[in-house]
């Protein structure tokens, strides 16, 4: 049985500025978050992932950092942050923070110094070219919003590299001082008590950029170096990487394949995310089965982090054009629902037309698959989006706590409008109303997460497709570990059906439904079990003490 905490965690991702405002200035803050820890504990989350907490001009929602050694004064002080870590710890909740070190804000004192003179001690902390690099119109991450990856700086009289927006100059990983500084930043926050980091843009951090070479080499060994440092400072600290790369490249980020992982502990499973979206759109599990079949073997301790929605657009770039069109047609047919030509800027509830059965099905499926589940704030109550806001802001509206003005998020003017009125407005969709209703989506999430935590083989164990006769639309898979076996039936399609479990039953000790979309007849010894359209059954086959 795994004894690594992150393999059994339920991660909840939130942005402090849109979560809860304690002082009425319209911006969410740390004290507001502390006030909601009991809510999170009751939901059953065991780890918070905080989107960037540092001072920032906020031109990319905090992913443009001004000072790595502080918290944004709008959120509170470092003292408040230490208090948050303590209060969360009291409730058994760990905290990881976004580590955004591929780039800084162009306002960061390092960049200001670097551009001011070729003799600046920080000049070589960034990536420069004397003449216009021929590949400067390649490799943009935000097509439509970003025109190039190299820009000319008049003060520096040189071109600087920026993989993301122009105001986010890339740090130079070839520079040993930069490498040391990143370690120092990690050490600082570990010392304060964070449990690890969600590392932003990892494939780009380790890119040894060469002007004119769009395929610059990557120094994966830096990840080994960083892991060693982090682990030395805090033995059970975790690195969770954002690395949306080709599947055959993924394993390298974990460490030597087949050996003991010595780089990143956890990677977001972008491939599974895309295939889940395709499967939900088609109402057919084939893409998920494919993902399960093609999963590369991870080194010991390596773990996937699964998700349906995060703070960015749903990225469909790894699908074929036909597949992408299918998902667009189902989930983002209007042009203003789409972004960068590859994604959808919507939350899941509106994507599924507010259909409660399909929402439960989608989340039951995500949480039952391999890896550690990550849940974005507000998804547990089925929040909607605001397409009148620019770009990804559509899915970054404030948390809807109650029917009070501004959804109880703030007594002031909210940093972003709260979704109001209509099917997803705070008047209808909010945590307080759902908390009092045992049939609400929130109550369902609480039950589902509790069930999951009683069966540690889910997430930490091995997850495989079970090839038994099923009607179209139905997926059967299982999770096995020394703690027991859980069998899952999920019907992505609309029609009721029956699943033949005769080949599985000989292993069953005392099978029982531990979570299901509705009451089903007792399992007994029958070979065929029924499953409703868009239904699901989690069956504990065996439990080992
Ligand atoms: C990935 C983050 O998820 C995204 O929100 C951000 O804009 C880029 N990295 C740049 O930091």
In DSSP terms, counting alpha (H) and pi (I) runs of 4 or more, how many helices?
A: 16
Strand content: 15-25%
Compute the CA-based radius of gyration: 23 Å
Structural class per helix/strand content? alpha/beta
Indicate the low-confidence ranges by residue numbers.
none
* Shape estimate: globular
Number of strands: 21
Bound ions, cofactors and other small molecules, one mention each: 1-deoxynojirimycin
N-end to C-end Cα span: 12 Å
- Averaging pLDDT over every residue, what do you get? 96
Q: Percent range for helical residues?
A: 25-40%
User: What's the main sheet like?
Assistant: 8 strands, parallel, barrel
Oligomeric state as shown: single chain
The strands making up the biggest β-sheet line up spatially as: 1-2-3-7-8-9-10-14
Brief summary:
By secondary structure, the protein is α/β, with parallel strands linked by helices. The chain has helices at 30-35, 37-43, 78-90, 109-116, 176-192, 202-205, 221-233, 247-254, 270-282, 286-294, 321-331, 348-351, 356-368, 431-435, 441-453, 457-460, and strands at 11-14, 47-50, 94-99, 128-129, 150-153, 158-161, 196-199, 238-241, 266-268, 303-306, 314-315, 338-339, 343-344, 372-376, 462-465, 474-481, 484-491, 497-500, 512-516, 528-531, 536-543.
Please give a structural write-up:
The protein has helices at residues 30-35, 37-43, 78-90, 109-116, 176-192, 202-205, 221-233, 247-254, 270-282, 286-294, 321-331, 348-351, 356-368, 431-435, 441-453, 457-460; strands at 11-14, 47-50, 94-99, 128-129, 150-153, 158-161, 196-199, 238-241, 266-268, 303-306, 314-315, 338-339, 343-344, 372-376, 462-465, 474-481, 484-491, 497-500, 512-516, 528-531, 536-543. It has 545 residues and is of the alpha/beta class. The strands form 5 sheets. It has an 8-stranded parallel β-barrel with strand order 1-2-3-7-8-9-10-14, surrounded by 6 helices. α5 (176-192) runs parallel beside α7, α9 packs across α11 (321-331) and α13 packs parallel to α15 (441-453). The mean pLDDT is 96. The site of 1-deoxynojirimycin has 9 residues, from loops.
């Amino acid at each position: 049985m795994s004894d690594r905490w992150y393999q059994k965690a339920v991660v909840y991702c939130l942005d402090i500025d849109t979560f809860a405002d304690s002082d009425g200035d319209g911006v969410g803050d740390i004290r507001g978050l502390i006030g909601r820890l009991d809510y999170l504990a009751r939901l059953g989350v065991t780890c918070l992932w905080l989107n960037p907490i540092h001072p920032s001009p906020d031109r990319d929602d905090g992913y443009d950092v001004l000072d790595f050694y502080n918290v944004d004064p709008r959120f509170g002080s470092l003292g408040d942050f230490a208090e948050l870590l303590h209060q969360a710890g009291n409730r058994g909740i760990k905290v990881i923070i976004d580590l955004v070190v591929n780039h800084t804000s162009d306002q960061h004192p390092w960049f200001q110094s670097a551009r001011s003179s070729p003799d600046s001690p920080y000049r070589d902390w960034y990536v420069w070219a004397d003449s216009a690099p021929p590949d400067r119109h390649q490799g943009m991450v935000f097509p439509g919003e970003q025109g190039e990856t190299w820009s000319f700086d008049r003060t520096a009289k040189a071109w600087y590299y920026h993989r993301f927006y122009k105001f986010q100059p890339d740090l130079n990983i070839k520079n040993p001082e930069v490498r040391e500084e990143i370690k120092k930043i990690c050490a600082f926050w570990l010392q304060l008590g964070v449990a690890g980091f969600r590392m932003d843009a990892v494939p780009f951090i380790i890119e040894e950029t060469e002007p004119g070479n769009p395929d610059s080499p990557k120094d994966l060994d830096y990840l080994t170096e960083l892991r060693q440092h982090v682990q030395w400072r805090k033995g059970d600290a975790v690195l969770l990487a954002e690395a949306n790369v080709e599947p055959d490249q993924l394993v390298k980020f974990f460490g030597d394949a087949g050996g003991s992982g010595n780089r990143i502990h956890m990677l977001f499973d972008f491939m599974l995310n895309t295939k889940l979206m395709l499967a939900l759109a088609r109402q057919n599990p084939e893409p998920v089965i494919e993902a399960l079949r093609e999963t590369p073997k991870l080194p010991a301790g390596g773990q996937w982090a699964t998700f349906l929605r995060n703070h960015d657009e749903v990225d469909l770039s790894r699908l074929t054009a036909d597949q992408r069109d299918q998902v667009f047609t189902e989930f983002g047919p209007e042009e203003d629902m789409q972004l960068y030509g590859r994604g959808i800027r919507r939350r899941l509830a509106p994507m599924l037309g507010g259909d409660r059965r399909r929402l439960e099905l989608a989340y039951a499926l995500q949480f039952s698959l391999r890896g550690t589940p990550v849940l974005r704030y507000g998804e547990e109550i089925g929040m909607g989006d605001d397409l009148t806001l620019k770009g990804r802001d559509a899915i970054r509206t404030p948390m809807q706590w109650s029917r009070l003005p501004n959804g109880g998020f703030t007594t002031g003017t909210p940093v972003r409008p709260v979704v109001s009125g209509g099917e997803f407005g705070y008047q209808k969709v909010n945590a307080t109303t759902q908390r009092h209703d045992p049939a609400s989506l929130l109550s369902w999430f609480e039950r589902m997460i509790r069930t999951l935590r009683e069966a540690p083989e889910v997430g930490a164990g091995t997850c495989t497709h079970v090839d038994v006769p099923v009607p179209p639309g139905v997926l059967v898979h299982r999770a096995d570990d020394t703690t027991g076996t859980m069998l899952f039936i999920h019907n992505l399609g609309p029609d009721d059906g029956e699943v033949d479990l005769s080949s599985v039953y000989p292993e069953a000790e005392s099978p029982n439904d531990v979570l299901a979309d509705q009451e089903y007849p007792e399992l007994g010894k029958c070979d065929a079990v029924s499953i409703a359209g868009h239904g699901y059954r989690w069956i504990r086959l065996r439990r080992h003490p």
